[in-house]
Structure formats: structure tokens, C-alpha cells
Amino acid sequence: MKVVLALDGISPCGEVVKAAAGRPWPSGSSFCLLNVLDPYPFVRAPLLLDRAKTKVRENLETAACCLEGLGADVTIAIALGSPRRGVNAFARDWQADLVMVGSNELRDWEAFFLGSTARSVLRHAPCSVEIVRPAREMVNGELRKGMNILIATDGSEFSTAALRSVGERPWPAGSAVKVVSVLEFLPPKEFSYLSRREVEELGAASVEEARICVAKGVELLKDSPLKVYPEVSKSTDRSYQVLLDEAEKWDADMIVLGSHGRSGFDRAVLGSVSEAVALHAKCSVEVIRHPSSRATA
Length: 297
Known about the structure:
This protein is of the alpha/beta class and about 300 residues long. Helix content is about 35%, strand content about 20%. The chain is built from nine helices and twelve strands.
């Protein structure tokens, strides 16, 4: 597995590096610690650009030392250009499977409207993306064991790719996963031409379909050492809000979603479920990009 850690070059062992260092990874995995440095501020001061590159390299080398315990191949890279485009371009050229990027920019509403680096990576990276947030290490005053992972499924091939990705990877001992399907209820006014009984039948069919999706998800994870829990949410709230609420109740460390799907898991659409969850979640969020849906930067 090839993983790009997109770093700001300022905090050597920040949350992204800690998250990577704190998990087991598939055998043969390799990591590249990347900083994309914008040269524009240094146009009239090339010597300052050289100093900035030297400092960034020192910090990346320090961060690489934080990953020594993984026993994996770790390299560093500095690219010049716009971070919003440079991370995606590097991930494509390096043929990365996953990009991990910090969430700090997603908290800044001005950056949100202008288009933050993390948001650009989430939308346009050619591979899966994880928005990393600080881990909650303590539970009820005790050190947490394992991870709680929430996986959203709608039965699509993209949800299946997300489930398989989680099931095929190693996780910390004691980790558990909850497979959640959100009911696709529509407001009653949308069915003004139907009788109440017919609307109830549609609702019952939606519940049954959600149960089937969850059952298939559980089946895909049967060979995983993860503890698996099924959940059909009966909330009629917006899909992304339901997932956020379920993650809070589950005390999730990570939410995993497919990048596309019937429920709007679409990286290219403003306001998509995956983007909304990544923006508002209190935990890390990983959006799995199905190989057939990978986009160019």
C-alpha cells in the first residue's frame, strides 16, 4: 500500500504522522512525507525560498523518524507549486493508494468557501483520501484499545469497495466496525399522489433494502478480525447528519465511505454526503475511491 502524508512542513510529528505511526499497515507498505511549497511569496527573494526548503526538509526528516517503528519504506519529497493542485498531482505520479491530510483547514470557513487544500484533495485526488483529526485516546478515564470504525453502505459497488478496503487491512487489536445503512425516505409531500398505505409500503421497502445492504456488508467482513456490528438507522434526517450522529453515538475514531453511490457519495458534487461528513465530523474520515472512479488531479 502506497501512502502519501501531506504535511505542512511546520509540525514534524503532527496529527497526520501520529495517525500513520499508530496503526498497523499491510506488509510492504511505503510512505512518502510530502510538502508542497508555494514559491509565489519568494519570487523576489530566491535565497529565502532556499532557506524555506531547507527548513521544510529538516522537519520532514524529523517526521520520517516518527515512522521508524512501522518498519516500512519511508521517503520525503518537496514539490513547488500550489498545494491544492500539487498534492493531487504528486499522488497521481507516485501512484498512491491513499492520501492522508490534516483537517485544520476544514475548520476555517473562509478557507472553506475559497477552497482549502484538504477540500481540494478530498474532491480531486486520484486515490482514496483520509481527513485526519486528533484521536481520542481516553474513554471514561481509561486508555482506549483499538479503533471504532463506522462504515456507511448503500449497497453500491463503491460502498462494497469501502467495505473490502477496511476488511483487507490490518487494524489495532480490539478494533470494531459498525456497518450502517441510512434509510432513503423522501418527504411525504413528494408522494401526494399516493395513499397513506402506499407510502407506508415504500417506507417498509426502504427499511428492508437497508437491512439487505447491511447484511451484505457484514458478510463482506466475516473473515476480518474486526468485531462487526450491524445498524439500520431509522432517522429521517439528512444522510450526512445521520452518519454524523451515528458516529457520535458509536464514539467512532473513523468514518469510512465510498466516493460515489446512490445516496450521493460523489466527490464532484458540492454538498455531497462524503464531503459534508468530512467537513463536519469530529473524527477522522476516509473516503475510499473505487479504482474505476479515480479522477485525475
